[in-house]
Every structure is written in structure tokens, then in C-alpha cells.
Amino acid sequence: MSNTAEINVGGKAIELPVIEGSENEQAIDISKLRGQSGIITIDPGFKNTGSTTSAITFLDGEKGILRYRGYSIEELAEKSNFLEVSYLLIYGHLPSNEEYNNFVETITKHTLVHEDVKKILEGFPSAAHPMGVLSSLVCAQTAFYPESLDPNRSSDEVDLSIIRLIAKMPTFAAWSYKNQIGHPVNYPDNKQSYAANFLKMMFANPAEDYEVDPVVADALDKLLILHADHEQNCSTSTVRVVGSSHASMYASISAGINALWGPLHGGANQAVIEMLENIKADGGDTKKWMAKAKDKDDPFRLMGFGHRVYKNFDPRAKIIKKAADDVLTKLGVSDPVLDIAKGLEEEALNDPYFVERKLYPNVDFYSGIIYRALGIPTDMFTVMFAMGRLPGWIAQWKEMRENKEPIGRPRQVYTGSKERSYVSMSER
Ligand code: CMC
């Protein structure tokens, strides 16, 4: 393929550059098209539009490949841990021993949050969904660290904000749950690993000893790795667009948490379990629910199925399906919805509707089943996703700022009324 493309607008040929990525993927650069022709492109939902170049995550949806900074998700999930993967995503290389120890130690020192955070927390009704609480607490960090609002801070100062956010995220997450159930919050225990500290803050009763089960902590750590980045998805694009106005990192990531919340994105993990529970309560007739999913007059979709980018299989789903089996066996948990999930998957994979549309289980199809086995309540599932996605959002925000990307500001094709005169109320 030549490194230019030509389009013809009203009889005038316009040559546009074609850029190539490191995995040979190609893109027509249309940034100067409007200047040359007065025309813009339109692509609702950005289905065919690259918003940026990025060196963080590579994803091939046809082949089911996902790599962070060149390392395969399978290898990282097996051999690495969440904080090492966080370092890799944010700083671009696997840390040396010294870099890793320093990173982990500094994070461990910053897990405590300002006592006034509790006052904010207490202002939320207990019915508040923990995702809304989490996004509010993250945004509130701009008040505790107002220097983070300065868009021209040094890289050391940005690094400190990064450390603070990774360190405090499990505290905010666990506290959002404690607020919901009306229990006193637990303070971080810095002798624990990242995942174990979170679990202890979630489940410990301050009056009793609490031992974190290493099987549970390991499974959670693996789930966090699998969610850590996914290139320009809805929440990450949100983080980049909000950050492109030079809003602070805390404000940008708070916006990403809100974008993740919806059931078509991270909220699907909660929706999957609710769907499986409904199917179970309805007698477990998976065929009936498959028919609903295929009926265009029925708004029901098979949650946890389909993906904007993966059209073969989601490599995260493969790992998670196996992990779900392992974790349930190790913990001695038998969950009837796992059988319903497997039955649905088998039917969908053999159903022409799903096959033709290349709809496969995604990361959220089995993750909820593991979270449940780990004792995580259903409406905390998306909070788990947010904890995992945090280093990806940070890496993408940092890359966007370091590349000095312009403010994100799409155009539109206006379809409203032409100019008309105002008519006074009495004459309408
Ligand atoms: N159940 C039934 N039909 C579906 C489903 C589904 N889960 N997903 C897509 N379709 C159909 C859709 O109706 C359309 O059919 P047709 O061509 O006849 O109009 C076709 O498949 C293409 O779907 P689309 O909505 O145009 O595809 P998209 O790329 O815009 O949407 C998606 C991708 C993930 C939003 C969608 O597949 C979906 O809603 N899935 C269920 C929600 C879900 O599991 N989300 C989690 C995504 S993975 C976690 C993450 O990274 O966010």
C-alpha cells in the first residue's frame, strides 16, 4: 500500500498521508482534509476513527491479541503482579529491582487518606452506588491537593499524584462499600499486598482478627492485571478528552470512572450476574433468553457478549473462564450461575445470529462469577474494574499530556432548523 491515499471531493482529488503503526496497522490522516476541501468526516461512535497514536497497548481484535507495552496479557497474568504491570504501563518498561521496590514502597506509604474524606463519605446516603461515590472521592482529591490543578507541574510532581492515586484507590473503593452497608471504615494495613490490603479494608471487622485468604488475594491481583488497560475504549477516551483541556489528572480519571459505569462498558460485569440470576429465577431456560437477545423488538441483550474490537475471541475472557473454574474449585464454592453461564456460552457459540455477528464472551462474562466467589458484592464489581483500569487511565493521560495533544473537540453535521425569527409567546 502506498503511503498516501486519495479521495475525490466534488471532482477535486485530494491526497492524504497514510501513517503506519509498529504492528503495520494503517490509518489515513485526515487532519488537514477540511482545510483542503471544506469537508469533514463523520463516524458516530468512532467505529472507524483513531483518535491518537499510542505506544501503550496493542490489540488485534481479529486475532484476539492483547499486549501491554509489547508483553502478552497471557504472560503478564501468569508471571507478573498488578503493581509491576502498573509500573510497566505508566513508565513504559518493566521496572528494575530498585525501581519496583521504590514504587511499591512509596505506594504503600500513601494508602491513608485525609480524615476529612470520611466527612464527604458520610454525606452520601447509604443507597449510593459505590461507583458514584468512588468517582466523587477521586475528584475530591483536587481539593486536598490543589497543586494538582497546575497543568505545568514538573514530572516529579505528576509522579507524586500518580502514586497517591494508585495508593488511595483501594481505600476509596473499600470505603464506598463500607458506607453502603453502614459499617465503620477500616484503615489500610501496609503490611499487606495491594490486593490483600483492599480485601482487608473491605471485609475485616475492626473488633476481630482477619486473615486474608491468599487464594482470594492472588485471584484478585490477576483480575486487576487483566483489566489494567485496553487502549482507546470509552472510559480511556473520556480520560484523554477531559485531560486534553488540561483538567487535572484526578478530574480526568473521575470522569473515566463515570464512563466505565454504564452497562455497555464496565457496568456489564454487574449486569451479567443480574442477568444470570434472572435466568435462574425464571427456571433456567437459556433458550428463551437467547431468543430474547436475538429479537430486535426486545431491548434485552446477552450481557457479557460482543465487543467493539474483538471479533474472534476476547483473550481476557479465555483467561478468566479458566480462572473462574480454578478459583471456585480452590475455594470449594459451587455456583449454579456458572453452569448457566457455560450453557449460554455454548449455545451462543453455535447460534448463527451470534456467529454471523462475531459475538463472543467478553471479559465481563465470567469476571462477575469470580468476584462473587471472592465474596465481592454485585454492585462493587464495576468498582473492581475501575481499580484494575486505573494504571491504564493514568498511562494514557500521561502520554496524552507528554505528546502535547490538542484539546479534543470533534465537529458535527448540523441537522436542525435553518435560521428563523423569534416569535413572541402571545403569537405562538
Ligand atoms: N446480544 C445480542 N445482540 C448483540 C449483542 C449482545 N450482547 N452485542 C451486539 N449485538 C448485535 C447488535 O444488535 C447488532 O446487530 P445488528 O447488526 O442486527 O443490528 C450487532 O450485534 C452489532 O452490535 P453493535 O451494537 O453495533 O456493536 P458495537 O460495537 O456498537 O457494541 C458492545 C459493542 C460491547 C456495546 C455490544 O456488543 C454490547 O452491547 N454487548 C453487551 C454489553 C457488554 O457485555 N459490554 C461489555 C464490553 S467488554 C468490557 C469493556 O471493555 O467495556
Write the layout of secondary structure elements.
Layout: E1 4-9, E2 12-20, E3 26-28, H1 33-37, E4 57-60, E5 65-68, E6 71-72, H2 73-79, H3 82-91, H4 97-109, H5 116-122, H6 130-144, H7 155-181, H8 194-203, H9 214-226, H10 234-244, H11 249-261, H12 268-281, H13 286-294, H14 315-331, H15 336-349, H16 352-356, H17 363-373, H18 381-402
Antiparallel strand pairs: 1-2, 2-3, 4-5, 5-6
The protein binds carboxymethyl coenzyme *A.
Task: List the keywords.
7% strand; binds carboxymethyl coenzyme *A; 18 helices; 52% helix; three-stranded antiparallel beta sheet; mainly alpha; 428 residues
Tell me what you see in this structure.
The chain has 428 residues and is mostly helical. Helix content is 52%, strand content 7%. It is built from 18 helices and 6 strands. A 3-stranded antiparallel beta sheet has the order 1-2-3. Strands 4-5-6 form a 3-stranded antiparallel beta sheet. Strand 5 and strand 6 form a beta hairpin. Helix 7 packs parallel to helix 8 (194-203), helix 9 (214-226) packs across helix 18 (381-402) and helix 11 (249-261) crosses helix 18. The relative contact order is 0.12. The structure holds carboxymethyl coenzyme *A.
